[in-house]
Amino acid sequence: MKTLKINSEKDLYVAAFNLLNILGPVAGVSIIIGTVALGYVQTRPQDLPVTHILTKGGRTFNLKAASTPEQLEKGLKFRSSLNGERGMLFNLGREIYDVPFWMYKVNFPLDIFYLKDNVVTTAVYNAQPCYKTPCPIYKGKVANQVLELATGTANIKVGDRLNIQPLSSAKE
User: N or C: where does the chain have the smaller number of CB atoms within 10 Å of the terminal CB?
Assistant: First the structure.
């Protein structure tokens, strides 16, 4: 390694300037790469495993469950479709009144069902995608879970008791 010998204050400033000429572009490129990578990660759909099934009208829907605050917030954003017999179950963790949901950055219409102990308390049919804020906010009367399915895939109405089971107990 070469040792830098500084004989005067001017040499110190020249050395600092040369170091900045090297570090500046490296920092700039790092910021650009980091910003692009962060944007990519933030706009990818979340990939949750199928953990529950819903059986309704002779059909079985595979449900991915969102439970953490980050998963609840991301929901079905950025996804291109639900592939027919799939859906998302939002476990709210407790009973909530006037539960707000919106369709911000969701790319396809959904039916939204607010559930309290597997009974539908509110149904929103054909909730449309929203790409700019402010978006319409859909509210459920009371819920401890919210179910989202592709529009028109299940004949579910307010008052219906849904048979949603965790995969482990569904296989037994």
Answer: N
Find tokens 């490129």 and name the residue: 29
Please give the Cα distance from 106 to 100 (Å, whole number): 15
State yes or no: cis peptide before 166, omega within 30 of 0.
no
The pTM (predicted TM-score) of the whole model is 0.74
| Residue 12 confidence (pLDDT) | 73
Give residue 95's pLDDT band: very low, low, confident or very high (50, 70, 90). very high
Q: Taking CA 76 as the corner, what is the angle to CA 137 and CA 60, rounded to the nearest 5 degrees?
A: 110
Assigned token pair, 168: 């482990």
Q: Of residues 168 and 23, which shows the higher confidence score?
A: 168
Report d(CA 162, CA 54) in Å as an integer.
7
Strands 86-102 and 59-66: parallel
The CATH code of the domain at 50-170 is 2.60.120.1140
Please determine, for residue 134, whether its predicted confidence score (pLDDT) is greater than 90: yes
DSSP 152-171: TSS---TTPBPEEEEHHHH-
Buried-exposed string 29-58: b where 16+ CB fall within 10 A, e elsewhere: eeeeeeeeeeeeeeeeebeeeebbbbebee
Q: Residue 35: what pLDDT?
A: 59
Element (H, E) at 34: helix 9-42
